[in-house]
Amino acid sequence: MSKNKIIIGAAGLTAIIAVIGIAASSYAAGGRGLGIKFGPNFSDQDNAAKQEMMQAAKASQEAIQKALADNDYVAWQTLMEEKKTEMAKKVDEFSAEINEDTFAKLVEINKLMSEKNYDEANKLRQELGFGIGFGFGPGRGLKAGWHK
Predict the structure, then answer these.
(1) Cα 103 to chain center, whole Å?
(2) Residue 109: how many CB atoms within 10 A of its CB?
């Protein structure tokens, strides 16, 4: 077998292994990689909410790009004010959750997860209103590793 065939075969095998690894890690992360909209930790409602958020973000970005391309300061300013208002609301919601009760529940969730007691940990997560990830609301916060 020639050296070129060995190199081509090794490169092909490496590419296949990489694709399988990326797909497996995406699935293990609840489908949060590569734009996949399904996974073991997503309900239909989570998927719909995520899709809606992605569409809204895309529409917002397109509107900003249009305002810049059109040299339309008023449109850009209006879009930035809307974003500022939305961010302020999220900060207020997040700030309301910074308290001793929430901290105690997070400590308990951490303990349960380290004991691999995912069902009880997920019950507490739901009590705190955690969405599809580990954080306050869908898709925000420290998501990695907090799933079945």
Answers:
(1) 22
(2) 22
**pLDDT 10s digits, 117-132:** 888 888 888 888 775 4
In three-state secondary structure terms, 97 is coil
Domain housing 114: 99-148
Say whether both 88 and 109 belong to one domain: no
pTM of the model: 0.47
Six token digits for residue 52: 């809606």
The verdict on 50 and 92 lying in the same domain is yes
Say whether both 125 and 140 belong to one domain: yes
Q: What is the 3-state secondary structure (H, E, C) of 14-68?
A: HHHHHHHHHHHHHHHCCCCCCCCCCCCCCCHHHHHHHHHHHHHHHHHHHHHHHHH
The verdict on 25 and 53 lying in the same domain is: no
Query: Do residue 105 and residue 88 come from a single domain?
Result: no
Which pLDDT does position 1 carry in this prediction? 59
pLDDT band at 58 (very low <50, low <70, confident <90, very high): very high
Torsion angle of the four alpha carbons 81, 87, 93, 95, in this order, in degrees rounded to the nearest 10: -110
